[in-house]
Amino acid sequence: MAPDSSRVLLASRDPRSDHVRRVLRLKPGDSLRAGVVGGPIGAARLVAVDEERMTLEFSPLCDPDRLPPIELILGHPRPIVLQRLLRDLASIGPARVVVVPTELGERSYTDATMWRRVHDLLVDGASQGGTTLLPQVARARSLADAVRDARGGEASRIVLHPEDPDDRGTVVALADALDERLRAPLTIAIGSERGWTAGEIDMLLDSGFQPASLGQRILRTEVAAAIAAWSAVAWYNRCRCVE
Q: Based on the number of CB atoms within 10 Å of its own CB, is 107 exposed (0-12), middle (13-18) or buried (19 or more)?
């Protein structure tokens, strides 16, 4: 919705117009929750609707809570999986998602046409989550680049891995790793559908990432990423750790 006007016109073919009419089944005079992407949350009153357009009147009420300082480094899954995942992550609310090619993944994924639709996917997910703020989504040329560019050296770092890599330390459950001693900002690295290689794990460990596990079950990338993001956001909201 346009932030510079309280009156908003939506064409009948606009998905939002269709949602108001067919899903919410609102009539002139009814109101719904609405917001401006990157701006305030408020209420929109349906003023009029005809075959060509819908007219709403938007009233801002409050600013959204800022996104938690949580970053995901995500091994690039299949594009159709990433589409669903980005939508879900926008609903959950980490501040940043960096998608990287991995040694066991398909490098051509980074050129997939779905990347042209990222903004729309994020808006859809944020709408579902009731916020107007979108996570920053970026593609890194390599895992090494993503690790180098990750939040500053003071950030807490976790890599999801199901077992102890080369007996270099104890792998704890993610729920136990996310305790009150951890400090934000937080970066979590999650492998692609075939996981991390030994070399990638070594690089992450050498870069200060601590291994953590989601248990013995083999999970799909989108499930692991959603669980990790939700757990991290819940941890941050619970502890309100010092940045």
A: exposed
Measured in degrees and rounded to the nearest 5, phi and psi for residue 207 equal: -95, 10
Residue 109 sits in the same domain as residue 24: no
pLDDT category of residue 166 using cuts at 50, 70 and 90? low
Contact call for residues 34 and 1 (beta carbons, < 8 A): yes
C-alpha distance across the termini of the chain, in Å: 33
Report the alpha-carbon distance of residue 204 to residue 194 in Å, rounded: 17
Domain assignment present for residue 1? The answer is: no
With a threshold of 0.90, does the pTM exceed it? no
Convert the pLDDT of each residue in 4-37 to its tens digit. 458 999 998 998 999 999 999 999 999 999 999 9
Q: Looking at this protein, which amino acid is placed at residue 96?
A: R
Phi, psi of 18 (to 5 degrees): -65, -40
